[in-house]
Design brief:
This protein has helices spanning about 35-45, 65-75, 85-95; strands spanning about 10, 15-20, 50-55, 80, 100-105. It has about 110 residues and is α/β, with parallel strands linked by helices. A 5-stranded mixed beta sheet has the order 1-2-3-4-5, covered by helices on one side.
Amino acid sequence: MYTASGIYRIRQTGPRTIVGFDEAEVPNHFYHAECRDDLVRLVAEQQCRTLVLDLTHVPNLPSGLLGLIASLQKDGIEVHVCNPPECLTNAVTVAHLENEVEIEPADE
């Protein structure tokens, strides 16, 4: 199911909610505010404890995606990232966010 913003697809709901970003749907000019409010609402409605962002099909890191992760965590949402592109893993390391961003392998 695609969200109203069309940027991501809800793959699983509940305490561990998973949303996937598809390569063709994440533009380089991605602005995180477009879907932040939708995700915050989704987390509240589902009584979600962990929000997993599945980045399996995202080959590059739009700058707004890191902003989205930081913004959601600032709102108190536990965010995990599944199968991120190498550039996101590098950005997390450079920004010293290893303790803030949980990175999961693709098979979870």
